[in-house]
Amino acid sequence: IKKEISSMSGNQSNTSEDHCPTINTSQSHCIPEDNSLIFTLVPPYILVISVLGIIFNVFVLMVFCLHKKACTVTEIYLSHLALADLALVFCLPFWSDYARISYDWPFSESLCKVSSAVISMNPFCNIYFLVMVSIDRYVALVHPLSHERICSPFYAKLGCLFVWVFGLVFALPIFIYRKLTFNPQSNLTHCSLNFTSPDQYLMYEVRVIIFSFIIPVIIILFCTVKIIQTLRKRRMEVLNIQKTDQKATTLILAVLLAFLIWWVPFHVTKILDVLRYTRILKCHITLIIAQQVSVYFAFFNSVLNPILYVIVGKSFRNRTKEFFNVWLSAATVLLLIVTE
């Protein structure tokens, strides 16, 4: 017998002994009744992700925003990517506490809505920031003569603003349908999505899959293939590639690969769950476990990105050294003034 609970995605369903959950008005994640392992492992894992994510992404934003040099177009996109990750990891501790007390929401309904909306905005905003940076690298390498004209810092900032606005619009159903629901059988209060009809759930999930995964991944793959082809062609023709372009492109490809590795399983399980809902696929406990694991698996991407900037991004390392030198000098001067 399985037990109904509300997971990080906060969805619900009914369960039965022999079948997967029959979805009423929302998607669900159901796990075996013996879920002590989840309540034991998930909260500390989420807390570690939160602490590391806050430290790393604040550091990245400080290097990008407080440095004396203005950010390049690529760095503008990466700084907004860090901001989206920072917003995510700030919300995760609430869900860590939620998991710790057996999915009994202890906070207000407003916090339930806001934290859920921020978490749902993260993959949407992240992937579109990566779409924009992929297009920037594509234009820089494949159409270099047009790059300075159409890929300026002003347009990059404007593009980031559009992504944030569309991300907020994308999260509107979370604000509307995410509510606190009391389960009298378990005596628990869940922070869950409560659609008024099954069709609303299906439309919501299909929209998420199309606009947060399929369309942006197609654009990213197209740009990436063209970028790799151009780099190979120039090497074969012994043509000069500006070092700055090559380094920036290497970093972006690493960040893109990391995003796909950590987020593709999450979106694949969403697609499989929609197919299960429409009865195209039969349900299996493996899918239910995969849904749980893929959510927590994807969150690590918010910690990994700053690490990639340091390991792969030589320009970022140079900025970091200059940043520390400037602030160390300022701190030294201030200390001398105070001591005198």
TrEMBL record:
Keywords: Cell membrane, Disulfide bond, G-protein coupled receptor, Glycoprotein, Membrane, Receptor, Transducer, Transmembrane, Transmembrane helix
UniProt GO MF annotations: bradykinin receptor activity; C-C chemokine binding; C-C chemokine receptor activity
Subcellular location, record wording: Cell membrane
Cellular component GO terms, alphabetical: external side of plasma membrane
Transmembrane segments: 45-64, 76-95, 115-133, 154-177, 208-228, 248-265, 285-311, 323-339
Matching PROSITE patterns: G_PROTEIN_RECEP_F1_1, G_PROTEIN_RECEP_F1_2
Membrane topology: Multi-pass membrane protein
Residue span(s) of domain G-protein coupled receptors family 1 profile: 56-309
Gene Ontology biological-process annotations: calcium-mediated signaling; cell chemotaxis; immune response; positive regulation of cytosolic calcium ion concentration
Family matches, as InterPro entries: Brdyknn_rcpt, CCR1-9-like, GPCR_Rhodpsn, GPCR_Rhodpsn_7TM
Pfam family, one: 7tm_1
UniProt-listed PANTHER family: B2 BRADYKININ RECEPTOR (PTHR10489:SF957), CELL ADHESION MOLECULE (PTHR10489)
Family membership noted in the UniProt record: Belongs to the G-protein coupled receptor 1 family.
Protein name according to UniProt: G-protein coupled receptors family 1 profile domain-containing protein
Organism: Oreochromis aureus (Israeli tilapia)
Lineage: Eukaryota, Metazoa, Chordata, Craniata, Vertebrata
